[in-house]
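Q: What changes when 6-O-phosphono-alpha-D-fructofuranose is included in the input?
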Amino acid sequence: MSERVSLLQHLTQAARAGQLDPALALVVQQIGAASREISAALARSALAGVLGAMDSANASGETQKKLDVLSNDAFMQALSWTGAVAGIASEELDGAYRVPGASGGYLVLLDPLDGSSNIDVNISVGSIFSILRAPNGAAGLTDSDFLQPGSRQVLAGFTVYGPATVMVLSFGHGVQGFTLDPVSGEFLLTQPDIRIPERTSEYAINASNQRWWQPPVQRYVSECMAGKEGPRGRDFNMRWVGSMVGDVYRLLTRGGIFMYPRDTKDPAKPGKLRLMYEANPIGYVVEQAGGAASTGYERILDMQPEKIHQRVAVILGSKEEVDLVVSYHRGG
Ligand code: P6P
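A: The predicted holo structure follows.
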């Protein structure tokens, strides 16, 4: 069997081709190192005593799981010495962390362990990462330096911890997938060019929120449920993992639309998911794979963030379906 390309080889080739700043190759390698540590901790789970909750809460007041804290620590340790990272923002940190003595020109935003409510029931979870340029380098870094539209991301991706641990990555030249070899500990290129099918017959949404959805989403989902006999003229399937990374990896692989729309359950909340470290990085990857990512009213990557932990409505995946849902939001 031909030798597979490792993550480091892929990053090095991209750097040599002028597609990637060599400093980012080291940062991504370190994201891989943290992902490997988290994957091992998840695999040992109860044996390592890492299940269950802490008696602490994160910046949004959500109870932290032990693995939320372990994962955040793993990324902070892996990234802080690279010299390339000036600051880190994380779902698990109240404000941005300024890396001591850093001279680097990049900012990293993280959801260290997304879907952690699934950990205790052994369902796939993931780490999500987004990288921006530090507008003023490391000098005088403030939280506002992170508040850049998702279109300014230079690199984004996620690691899904499922039956296999897979890192999905983009730095503006398509989307690649790297599978962790548990024997060698290396991430090896297994999907060199991930493309989302434009057409799909599979949607993902938490249907228990149906009574709070806005009319465009009510209409779209009811038409999917009407199937062949309805206006869509074909049957649809539904999936909901309860972990965004799990749903997104599936739609990247076989198509689909993922929705966590704005609803009236809590009118003060514009959505459940976070713009900076969930919607933006996932939206970047989805667009790079030929899909679309919208709030229903605007392209997610065009949004000007106001707060690091702000929430947003998310409708993303196969372009045909996202465009249809957006047209319904526009009264189509
Ligand atoms: P619900 C996990 O908590 C998360 O942020 C996403 O990963 C996931 O898609 C969503 O929330 C699940 O939300 O309301 O179905 O539990």
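Observations recorded in class: The helical segments are 7-16, 22-48, 66-80, 215-226, 244-254, 275-288, 319-329.
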